[in-house]
Amino acid sequence: MLRKLCESYTDLTDRDIRQLESLEANLQYTADLTGSDIFIDCMMNGGSGALVVAEAKPGSSPSAYITAVVGKAALRENEPAVFRAFATGVPVRDIKAITQENVAVKQDVAPVKNPEGKVIGVLIREKDISAYVRQDKKYEELIRTVESRADTLGALQTEDSKEAALREIHHRVKNNLQMVASILNMQARNSSIPEVRKAFKENVGRVLSIASIHDILMTTGGEDAVSIRCLADKLRRNIQSIAPQDKELVITVEGDNFVLPAEMASAVGLCISELISNAVEHGFGGRDRGHITVTIQNGNLYHSVSVRDDGIGFYPGARSKSSLGLNIVEATVKEKLKGEFRISSGTGGTCAMIEFRRDLDRDAPV
């Protein structure tokens, strides 16, 4: 069935199909070992959608499926992790999805690449989480009921004063950081050494990324939490304003929105700023236009942020140890976020992704 579907609906070569058939031979062992439903999906001709070409249900554990789904399409809005793995070429973990039978599952997706590095399919592991989803909804309804009945008049009066003081603090810090950025800009303009000007410009972006955190906190009242989409959009505008004028670069932000504690948001914001700046500076050598996309994903256990460009690409293994921006990202993700940092690159561009555990932001409001 796998070969028939691939030959009918995909542009895979005979060698690609044989590689997938070899993988299919071990699907049942993987399903039994993990107690999960396991699938292989392939992209259909012209990138019109993804198609299930092989499946295996666990032999001794409940399956999330009643019927077979081989030959059925995977919808982008229901299974974002599948299309994310096809687009980026890197694994995507712990993302909520909806099956063809309308059941909530958690997906782990790993791209399958041929010897040339082309993604020819994805291997998917799914676990039924519908019971947890129903339980979460009950807890949310209970919390809303309790909060709606609470008498908060006296507390609100106290909170108003506290929020005003916090807003003033964040306003002053933001202004001071913007002043530092202005001084760095002046020093950059006054230097005749290109390397010095470049270093000053890079540090202007870092200072402005921190200032953006305080700018957002000015509008959130007393909550020490930051909207990640709002932060990413502010960083995008900051970098867009200082990008080279001789290049037509478009920077966009897409994906989910959630809030993070201010300290954690500062670390994520610094990483986003460095990765966008790195793409702007190095991603489009010899080209006068390009597109950079920041994608934010809110998982059940992990958050992820990727910065993808359609530039000239590079070989990640040859990355210079003196690459300060990427070294900053690597250290920040490891030390501040306790997460992982990965880069995938090729002739179609570069995708840099950071992942960090969601339970680190348990104190942030949702």
Helices and strands in order:
Blueprint: H1 2-9, H2 14-24, H3 27-34, E1 37-43, E2 50-56, E3 73-74, H4 80-88, E4 92-98, E5 104-113, E6 119-128, H5 130-149, H6 153-190, H7 194-217, E7 225-227, H8 228-242, E8 248-255, E9 259-261, H9 262-282, E10 289-298, E11 302-309, H10 324-335, E12 340-346, E13 349-357
Parallel strand pairs: 8-10
Antiparallel strand pairs: 1-2, 1-6, 2-3, 4-5, 5-6, 7-9, 10-11, 11-13, 12-13
Helix pairs in contact: 1-2, 6-7, 7-8, 7-9, 8-9, 9-10
Task: Write the H/E string, N to C.
Answer: HHHEEEHEEEHHHEHEEHEEHEE
Radius of gyration from the alpha-carbon trace, in angstroms = 24 Å
- The residue ranges in which pLDDT falls below 50 over 5 or more consecutive positions are 362-366
Total strand segments: 13
Describe this structure in words.
The structure is a single chain. With 366 residues, the protein is α+β, with helices and mostly antiparallel strands. The chain is 45% helix and 25% strand. A hairpin with a 6-residue loop joins strand 1 and strand 2 (50-56). Helix 7 (194-217) packs antiparallel against helix 8 and helix 8 runs parallel beside helix 9. The model is unreliable at 362-366 (pLDDT under 50).
Offer a few descriptive terms.
366 residues; alpha+beta; 10 helices; 45% helix; 25% strand; globular; disordered C terminus
